[in-house]
Each structure stands twice: as C-alpha cells, then as structure tokens.
From TrEMBL:
Organism: Actinia tenebrosa
Protein name per the record: acylglycerol lipase
Domain of life: Eukaryota
Annotated localization: Late endosome membrane; Lysosome membrane; Mitochondrion membrane
Catalytic reaction(s) noted: Hydrolyzes glycerol monoesters of long-chain fatty acids; 1-dodecanoylglycerol + H2O = dodecanoate + glycerol + H(+)
Lineage, opening ranks: Eukaryota, Metazoa, Cnidaria, Anthozoa, Hexacorallia
Domain AB hydrolase-1: 74-308
Record InterPro entries: AB_hydrolase_1 (IPR000073), AB_hydrolase_fold (IPR029058), AB_hydrolase_sf (IPR050266), Epox_hydrolase-like (IPR000639)
Amino acid sequence: MGICQILGIVLMFIIILLVFCIISYYLWPSLLVELLQRWSMYRAGFVSKTVNVGVDFQFSYMERGTPSETNQSIVLIHGFSASKDVWCNMSYAFPNTIHIIAVDLPGHGKTTRRHDGDHTVPAQVIRLHQFVHAVGLHQRKFHLAGISMGGHIVGVYASKHSNNLLSVTMMCPAGIDAPHLSEFLEDVLKKGEKNYLIPETPEDFLTMWKKVVYKYIHLPYFVAKLFTDVRRPFNGFYRKVLEDLAHPDHRFLLQNVLEDITVPTLVLWGEHDKIIHVSSVDVIKEKLGTSQVHILDNCGHALSLERPWKTAKLMMQFYTSIES
C-alpha cells in the first residue's frame, strides 16, 4: 500500500469522525458526551463497572487498580450534578499503587435515578454504605474523600462508620453554617438571581463555569451548549436534590456531627471559593480540632479540576503521615 493510499484512508477516517461528531452534536449530544467521558476514563486507566443493590437499584462506578495488603484504597465522591469522571484528571497525580474507586451518587451519572426518591444527606449516606458493602470495601479499611455535596456526605459517613475508614478528606464540603455568605448564596438568596448551578441555557452554563473556577478557562459556546443540552432533561431531578439537601433538619448536618468524627481528617478548600465560603473552615477547626486544614491559593470551588496535582499531593502526604 502506497503512502498516498494510507493518507487517503487517514483523511477519510478524519472526515467520517468529524461528520459523526457534527451529527451527534445536533441530534444526540448525550452520545458525544458519553464518548468523551469514556475516553477520559480510559486514558486515566479506569474500568467502568456497575453493581446492584437490591433488585431495582444499580450503582455505576469506575475503578483503577486492585486492592491488596500493600495497595491502599481511596473512594472518591463527586459533588452536586457532577459524575464520577470529574476525578479522571486528578487521578494522574496518584501513584499507580493506589487503588481508586469513584462512584456516581444516586441519580447522577449512570446510577439509578428516581425523581421521587429521598436525596437528603442521611439517605445518601445509607446508599453509600450499601455501595461499600456491595463492592466488598467493608472487608478492609479505606480512605474516603468527597467534594462539595460529596464532602458533606463523606463527613457524615465518617461520623457513623469510622470503623470502616483509615481517613476522610472533605474538599470544600457543604453542610456548614459559614460565618459569611458565599457569592453564590448572595446572588440567589439576597439578589434573587437565577440558580446558575442548574443551567437552562448555554449562557447559564458559562455563568456557572465562571463562578465555579477561580482562573477562568475559556469554554467555546458550542461546548457550553453541548453540556447544557445533556443536563437540561434532568434539571427537575437536580432541583429535587437541592430541595432535599436544604431540608431544615439536614442542611447543616455535617456541622452537627463534626465532633463525632474520630478518624484522621483532612480539609481542603479553595481560597477563592464562590460557591461555599471558605470561612466554613473556622467552624470546622473549632469543632474538629485534630484535623489538618489546607487552603489552596489560586483556586475556587473545583479543586479536582483547578488544582488536581496539588490536591492529590496533599492527600498523599496526609496518608503518609497517618501511616507514620
């Protein structure tokens, strides 16, 4: 086969790929996003898996490596309206000897979605515990880490199931009555602005992106439209989740159980977090005196995206300090 024939085949492949992407963008955006997420997981060394809990509920998760006597296990819990693939970028910073599991919370990603389900933090802690048993994590202790809503969940989980854990890491967790309102709460509660965490339009999505990160990374409009189109059908579900999270009995549940956390605890926060105010750290320090706290400069709410290497480095240093 000559060089011209090879170039012709490559060019034809590129054209077919572009046509496929264009058609998917307009007719089936969820397929395009699914392919992008799977590619991201594959490059990071993850294998996509599922596990059933009962007869009608299925967790979707991804796993890298295998647990052993020498390999520590880390379970990663994403935030509101996100999914397990948000950890792909940060996973590069963890040693290959670390066994990593990242799970889609109920209704998020590919895990079973129930619009009439209970998504309060206590209910999500119960579901997380079911997942832990379903994949056999309860047979040996593991590290647990979560961000934002996930940080709230893992903190409450640690207060109830410390016998399962080596440590817990909370990244800008919700569930704290912060001394100061965040920019997000100022916008929504005081100014009455639209909740941009549930974007209806590409413009809403770009606003959310600007608020979540500190150093703005330009997103093309077509990317914002793609992700908005994929998320929009589930906005009713996300509103239900927010209502459940804001339940008066559970909104600040993490703050109420901090003193019950007995495992080593690491708290990480972005200095310029606009979604959950960094002053929450003061409350945590007062209630949980033995914790390690690090505030990351040049970082907003999305630690795993903005400062993945620094975040992973602090976690590994923390795990080493526990061992020693």
